[in-house]
């Protein structure tokens, strides 16, 4: 038993420096972030925001917000002279507008979230390959998805490098298509 404990202590003493060296070659990457920060993803999201339906809903939300602000200001100003029935009617109107605004805002956020999810889903294999290439180029021993890491003393984040690699690949593909 004592021999086993000594063996474990020696193994830990010898292995600890090796683990420390391995820790120097660990990095994280936000795969979703790498995809969403590419030039093409930014263009797609910008086009979505310029889409007539999106613009119409955004304008509706802005108008509703202004209307709600005015209703609240008027209510506060006139509250002292309103009858209980008028107060209740104004409160219900304000509440109705708030509910309508939240629903519209949720629709806009959901459409943007669905677009982001589609971009990530449709480009997963490409970003995996780019992340692996960057990891090899950087001489990394271990590459972790940033969303899976809760804590790491010193973090090397290669997300920007992966995004650059994806942008370079797109530029090369575009150049090859023009030839």
Largest sheet, spatial ordering of strands: 1-2
Give the biggest sheet: 2 strands, parallel
Structural class: mainly alpha
Counting DSSP H or I runs of 4 or more residues, the number of helices is: 7
Radius of gyration (Å): 28 Å
Q: Calculate the terminal CA-CA distance, rounded to whole Å.
A: 72 Å
How would you spell out the order of helices and strands?
HEHHHHHEH
Runs in which pLDDT lies below 50 for 5 or more consecutive residues are: 4-8, 15-20
Strand content: under 5%
Query: How many structural domains?
Result: 1
Helix content: over 70%
Give me the count of strands.
Answer: 2
Overall pLDDT score: 86
Tertiary shape: elongated
Task: Describe the fold and architecture.
The protein is mostly helical and 179 residues long. The protein has one domain (26-174). It is 79% helix and 4% strand. The chain contains seven helices and two strands. The protein has helices spanning 2-23, 31-36, 39-50, 52-78, 84-122, 124-138, 159-178, and strands spanning 26-29, 142-145. Strands 1-2 form a two-stranded parallel sheet. α4 runs antiparallel to α5 and α6 (124-138) crosses α7. It is elongated.
């Amino acid at each position: 038993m004592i021999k086993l404990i000594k063996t474990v202590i020696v193994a830990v003493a010898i292995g600890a420096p090796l683990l420390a060296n391995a820790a120097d070659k660990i990095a994280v990457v936000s795969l979703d972030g790498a995809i969403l920060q590419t030039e093409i993803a930014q263009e797609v999201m910008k086009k979505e925001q310029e889409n007539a339906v999106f613009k119409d809903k955004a304008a509706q939300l802005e108008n509703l917000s202004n209307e709600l602000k005015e209703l609240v200001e008027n209510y506060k100003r006139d509250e002292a002279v309103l009858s209980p029935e008028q107060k209740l009617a104004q409160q219900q109107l304000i509440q109705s507008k708030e509910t309508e605004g939240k629903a519209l805002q949720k629709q806009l956020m959901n459409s943007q979230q669905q677009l982001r999810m589609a971009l990530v889903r449709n480009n997963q294999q490409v970003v995996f390959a780019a992340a692996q290439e960057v990891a090899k180029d950087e001489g990394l021993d271990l590459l972790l998805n940033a969303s899976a890491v809760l804590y790491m003393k010193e973090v090397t984040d290669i997300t920007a490098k992966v995004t650059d690699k994806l942008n370079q690949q797109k530029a090369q593909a575009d150049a090859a298509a023009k030839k």
